[in-house]
Design goal:
This protein is mostly helical. About 75% of the residues lie in helices and about 0% in strands.
């Protein structure tokens, strides 16, 4: 499900919880709404609110860390591609085919960042880069050293690329989001239980529910940086594509 869809569900559930609380207020006997009952409900909701705030802050921190890690990984791949191209250029003109394969791989990587691309798309082309470099026949010690360095960089870049692509669907477990949403609905329901029924209260619940849903949307967006509103910048990969082969 898209992040906007999840955010919409969170908004609906939380806002509905507040409206249910408003509705229950008119059904409960008067002694259920006494100051003593209100104090007990406040204590219980304070506990749930504290736990919910901790979980939400952990989710935001985890999603932001994941976003930063994947952004750094993409920049590392771009830097490795440029460095590998420079090594192949120093090796000699016989690496022309290898540099062309490298350029095609960078272009393929840019395409795979799209959520519509499959992880296995272009696997043969990626493996061909290592084979082309491995097939080089160095005739001097400097060329042997450059070939070995190129093979090492190509292998490391491939490992980083697969790690990046495997993480693109996000890592936040769905039960976390479901339980947190239920907690928030319960909290808003308690707000409605002791609130007067008027347009100002309903508007306040609407804005607060929208804000909570926005926070959840931010978490999902950061956790899935290859799609949606917040995406990993691809400037480094595009710059690498422009430089490789020159």
């Amino acid at each position: 499900m898209s992040s906007l869809g999840i955010g919409g569900i969170v908004f609906f559930v939380v806002f509905a919880g507040a409206l249910v609380g408003l509705f229950l207020r008119s059904l409960l006997p008067e002694h259920h709404l006494s100051p003593d009952s209100k104090d007990v409900v406040k204590l219980g909701m304070a506990l749930i609110a504290t736990v919910a705030a901790l979980v939400l802050s952990l989710l935001i921190s985890s999603a932001k860390a994941s976003y930063d890690t994947q952004t750094a990984a993409l920049r590392q791949i771009a830097a490795d591609a440029i460095f590998l191209d420079r090594i192949l250029a120093r090796y000699g003109p016989e690496t022309k085919d290898a540099r062309m394969v490298l350029r095609n791989n960078v272009a393929l990587m840019l395409d795979q960042i799209s959520p519509a691309a499959g992880l296995a798309s272009g696997q043969a082309a990626r493996e061909r880069l290592y084979d082309v470099i491995d097939a080089l026949a160095p005739v001097s010690e400097p060329q042997r050293a450059l070939r070995a360095q190129a093979l090492t960089i190509a292998a490391e870049a491939a490992r980083t690329r697969w790690l990046l692509l495997e993480q693109r669907d996000g890592g936040i477990p769905t039960p976390f989001l479901v339980i947190l949403t239920l907690w928030l609905a319960i909290i808003f329901g308690s707000f409605g239980l002791y609130a007067p029924r008027n347009a100002t209260i309903v508007a306040t619940f609407f804005v607060c529910s929208l804000s909570v849903a926005g926070a959840m949307l931010l978490v999902i967006e950061l956790d899935r940086p290859f799609s949606g509103l917040i995406q990993i910048p691809t400037t480094s990969m595009r710059n690498a594509l422009a430089l490789i082969g020159r």
